[in-house]
User: Fold this.
Amino acid sequence: MYFTRIAWLALAVLAAAGIAAAQVTLSGRVVDENEAPVAGARVSAHLGDQPAIEAKSGPAGDFRLSLPAPETYLLDVDRAGYFQLTNRPVAVTGAATEVTLVLNAQHEVFQNVTVGAMPTPVDPEQTQREQQLSGTDVNNIPYPASQSLRNGMRLIPGVIQDPSGGIHFHGGDESQTRYTLDGFDISDPIDNRYSTLLAIEGVRTVDVVSSRETPQYGRGSAGTLEIHTDNGTDQFHYTATNFVPGLDFHSGTRIGDWTPRAGFSGPIEKGRAWFSDSFNGEYNNGFVNGLPSGQNTNPAWTAGNLFHTQVNLTPSDIMYGDLLSDFDHQAHYGLGVLDPISTTSGQSDSEWLAAVKVLHSWYSGAVLEGGFSWQRVYRRRVPEGSETYIISPSGRSGNYFLDSNQDGRRAQIFVNYFPQAWHRAGRHQLQIGADAQRLDYTAWMHRTAFEVIGNAGLPVYLTTFRGGGDISHPNAVAASYINDHWQLAERVTVDLGIRQEWDELVRRAAFGPRISASWAPFADGHTKVTAGFARVYDATSLSLFSRPLDQQPVTTPYSDTGFPEAPLYTTFLAGENLKLPGFDKWSGGVERQFWHTITGSVELLRKRGTDGFVYSLVGPPPPGIAALGPSALSYGFGGTYQLTNQRQDAYDEASFTARQTFGDQYGWMASYVRSRAVSYAVLDIGVDQPLQVADNFGRMPWDTPNRLMGWAYLPLPFKDWAVSTLVDYRSGFPFSVTTDNGTIAGPVDSHRYPDNFDLNVHVERRFTFRGYRLAIRVGANNLTAHHNYTAVGNVIGSPEYLEYYGDEGRHFVVRLRMFGRAGKP
Assistant:
């Protein structure tokens, strides 16, 4: 018996040794066509009907697969933003085999492609929520004003665009999202908003990281928008879009909107240096329905260019460079059905960005990258004249009261380090990084006056301004972080880290812990469950902190008979002992691949913001605003307001998304988002605020409880024909109603516009003409001519009360694109 057990044990040891001996290793790197490492690519090895064995490439593009025996395997490699590599045969002959796998960056393809299923996008190793659009998606989907990347962001579930063009990610203000270009912060240095103009042709992917953020993401409670630009290759490519202006038939025939775009890329030195250049331009006559002929257009033009380079200094050292220039001008900014030309302003904006990034990678898998950038934003606003600006129940008149120059600058430096992965109770990939920024804001503000007229036609308030309005305000910010991406088991991954923020304006450090996990409960890896928590802080705003240096309002109330009374002085003061605004973000989700590579996901998000910045009333309320109530967040004419941390925000979201991608460019997406966005400080209490607020708690102006959206780009049965559609339904935006003296009646944003609905359908034909490859698209936006209003009469007692304006109507669209000469790449 004893010897029998020894024999069985010896046989087991020999069998285990045999299995271990049979195990072989396939390792290597995933790189793009320019030999830059591709991180996060999924490498799958399969043999016959056996289950595939998968691994994910690390920061240096490195991967490692343990295979059961020497054999010729077929490899698949896929990564968002790149064409899939399929069925690449690799002979694994020894105990260790190395291979380099090359992925080509995805771009629009001209020819008709074979429609085939793409691999599952479910990634069991990714714990954070990441939503992505490719440059191909943005070009193919027929959203309104499709030349604008800003407008294209509405195609992402949870992203809302308000009537003024502002974009709001998952319930946040536009300033609560961090915007990056190739890793560099491009948020407006003045107010943290998105003001950069980019040609769609120069964009490879647009990624939104909105919850369960790892610590590398910061200064944006609503998430981070990452824009990745296109790289050149050893072959020259060029495209041109809408290079022939169209016609407009509103109130006569004239040159219509013209949105020329072009992209050009190729080698500087083949095999070593490449470039890509993208240009976008726009001329828009800005037609406004409901105004008299000759006074119903706001001519505007924009021009922007992004030049991007890559130079391989050595096989391990790569340098990237970006040079961006943008120019924007509107003749009658603010023109609307209730705001005639006299109330508008001429507005001119410009932006410059220069950036350099260097990446060094070791074959062991370690990566070090660092970068420096300089950015400048300039704004000029000139009103039509110097007459008093009139706010009446029937609309506005006179001349807008603000004449301004604003200049913002940012210098940024950052470093990120990924050491070699190590193993202890699983696989660990650390990431360590830091960045620092210097910001400067200078401005000149000059205001005339605005007057509020009541229903009786008599003045209610007249506001003038005191002080010079000369502003100069610097700031410095710094951050550091560490994160451990821990693959605890084959189907369990945990991200654990912390981020430290420091800001000169508050002179206090803040720490944000992050933890998130993903679990693939089934062996096929087609289902993933995720959950996590993140403490995220918002960036400070130089324009907000500069308010005490700006001009201050002086408001003169009028009696019921129209006689002026004692003036009320409003003063804004700098804050004391301030903290950085922070959000606690709890989130979870389930993602599943179904039949035919259809992927469905459910996401839940709960955000609670504390210590938000707001100017609050200090001291006793002056005469005239005591009736507004005891809330420190109410606002009236007169009084002293100091910057505090009394603002609180809340956002809840449940989203359901289904998506399928097939072929090289075709696919569809459908989503429903149920959400709620509320705040204790809905309206900004500022120098230019013409309203009085008794109850500043309510729905945010972009709150949309229900949104149902779907888009598709699908091949038609006819060769080289395709159809592109967009369906977008949402609840109407909230708005406030006021009395004739400018006081908001009831809670802020207590009313809503009618629901909004857009149906866009376009048909596209690709063909060759005189040796050039062309594509022409014809279609209609708002095909059902639904009344999607953008303005409303909101003064109680006026004849226009609750009358809606700004019906956009049905628009017919023609787009012509050129993809270069036939027979060329």
Summary: Residues 171 and 243 are 37 Å apart (CA to CA).
